[in-house]
Amino acid sequence: MSPTNKAGKTKFQLDLRRHLREHYVNENLTHLICEIAEASKYIIHSISTGDLGVAGTSNLYGEQQLALDVLADRILRKRLDHSRVVANMMSEEMDEIIPVSPDCDGKYSVAFDPLDGSSLVDVNLAVGTIVSIFEGCDLLQPGRKQVAAVYVLYGPRTTLVYSVGKGVHEFGMNMLREYTLLQENITLEPQGNLYSPGGQRNLYTPGVEAYVNKLEERGVKLRYSGGFVPDINQILLKGQGIFFYPHLKNQPQGKLRLLFELSPMAFLIEQAGGAASDGHRPILDLQPEQIHERSPVFIGCKKDVALAEEFIRKLEDDKSKTG
Ligand code: AHG
Ligand code: MN
Ligand code: MN
Questions:
Q1: Looking at CB atoms within 10 Å, which of 134, 201, 206, 294 has the fewest?
Q2: Which residue has the higher pLDDT, 221 or 65?
Q3: C-beta 73 within 6 A of ligand 1
């Protein structure tokens, strides 16, 4: 029999809004996270019925936008715009920060990837929405200043994972399209036995190459879907593993975006007792200089992240010092 909460409801019928209230999350932040959950219901609909083609536009990275990217962006932007608790917002699909309200008191600034992995929808693989939330008006802050991070995973089941700095909790969407609690306080082991290697192997630098060889010597299994959200979700729910999209010979900053992909996921993984690094320092300590900044990332079990940093230090940093 699952434990019951004060209202006598079994813990696992606990919906998202009640869970937030039970964790004394303030009213505006509760409303904001619930609005993100609401928006996900329309994004699901657009994924299952929407046009899989290109939008005929490209984002600031020059990446071709899919109709679904633009649609998901519009759905989330509209929700946040009308939420009355957002000061500024910024997405992977926008060129600059969108001001929503001039006053910052009691409001939040939100950075989001409306549909991460969108190019996987046409081969029916799992995709997700990633949201990073700061208090006040400033989005260009280190990720450690976030007050919340949320992702929604559109997979065989639709799930939502959030943290407000009091543990990581997972919700599932039921038949009535409500999010009900699946599990609380998700935690990672110190070391794992799965790895999720992004980027092309032939472009790996010596430290990363040696790191992967070490993992494979240990018999660590390769699990890579090409979607950041399902790949991170797998590590969280299995309680172990490491994902990396490293600096590459031709892309020293890697591929993933700091503000709306790496900071929120690093917040969640650290809350689960894991670590997230750019290969030298915690992702959450990086001070973004501009909104669309990218960073290399090694994220997951603490020991696996530390091992990556050690290989990079020994085979790249020290090497470059001694020449
Ligand atoms: P997005 O679809 O938002 O541009 O992000 C895709 C990202 C991320 O989901 C994934 O980890 C990475 O791209 C995969 O990149 P590769 O296809 O180069 O492996
Ligand atoms: Mn993305
Ligand atoms: Mn995206």
A1: 201
A2: 221
A3: no
